[in-house]
Amino acid sequence: MNDVLLFVHSGIGRITLNRPRALNSLNHGMVRAIAGQLEAWRSDPAVHAVLIDGAGERGLCAGGDIRAIHEDARAGGSASLRFWADEYRLNALISRYPKPYLALMDGLVMGGGVGVSAHGSHRIVTERSRIAMPEVGIGFVPDVGGTYLLSRTPGELGTHIALTAGSIGGSDAIHCGLADHFLPSDRIPELPDALASHGPDAALELLTEPAPPSDLAADAAWIDHCYAADTVEEILARLHSAGGAAATAAKEIEAKSPTAVKVTLHALRTAATLPDLESVLAREYRVSYHLLRTAEFAEGIRAQIIDKDRSPRWSPATLSEVDDALVGSCFADLGDDEPGLFTPGR
Length: 346
Prior knowledge:
This protein has one domain: 2-enoyl-CoA Hydratase, Chain A, domain 1, CATH 3.90.226. Helix content is 47%, strand content 12%. Strands 1-2-3-5-7-10 form a six-stranded mixed beta sheet, with helices on both faces. A four-stranded mixed beta sheet has the order 4-6-8-9. By secondary structure, the chain is an alpha/beta fold. The protein has helices spanning 28-42, 66-75, 79-95, 112-115, 146-150, 157-164, 170-175, 191-198, 200-207, 215-218, 220-227, 232-242, 245-254, 258-271, 277-292, 295-306, 324-329; strands at 4-9, 12-17, 49-54, 59-61, 101-105, 108-110, 122-125, 130-132, 167-168, 181-182. The chain has 17 helices and ten strands. The longest helix has 17 residues, at 79-95. This is 3-hydroxyisobutyryl-CoA hydrolase. Keywords: Hydrolase.
């Protein structure tokens, strides 16, 4: 069985992630196949737009193949680095694709799933959408351009999403700028033919409807106040002081990797100052490179994915032990290992 299905139907290039038993998680072969097909469709006059979706009923994509990355990390290998380099190139390609790129973000969309969808030109959510960048829970940092996207949400909503690793619904995703259109799930079967008959914009106008109110928007006041602080420690102090849902958020952050939480906050603040997605992806690659070599990342995957005991032994174990030097080391230049991720002008 092919892990990704690639075909053209009535002028629409179709990409279907086809690992439903693994929640359509991405492996290196899938990333390369998608990128190669997008390059071919770029200049194909028979292809007017592209639609990506996921096989099965559970979601578009749960992220990268974490088990494979865990094995590579434990073995001290470099396969994950090659995967990430190609994955980040794919994210950039999607963001500047010259034809309409529609992403059906139905069901679960996590990590790498966000990377192949939220950089597209037409991003579609449903009432079943659950979108997350949960990396801090496994000792990692949002990548695939996640820090670019989350640093550009209204106020501090992206900081809240990243540090708690929580999932958001379709309405929240639209409010945060991670999606554009709300499509009731019972109308999904109509989408391919509507695209072929009417084109992307007219089809979406025909099928979509206004999204319900965003829960995050209603919480913006305390989120913006608490997460505007300069340090994780001060953010936690403000959250605890605010009480209620804010205090619950603080407890969620405190259960995550202290290193990952501090590195993520720095990554978000930095991403907000960088000029484009490519520059953020290049910075994210450095962080991914350094974290792959830490026991923290392997331990986080072990606790959450492999053994599922949900009891990671973080090291350093406390925020106070994660100093500026440790955080800065995760962004250090890679020297000869720095890849040329992007071709200028592409």
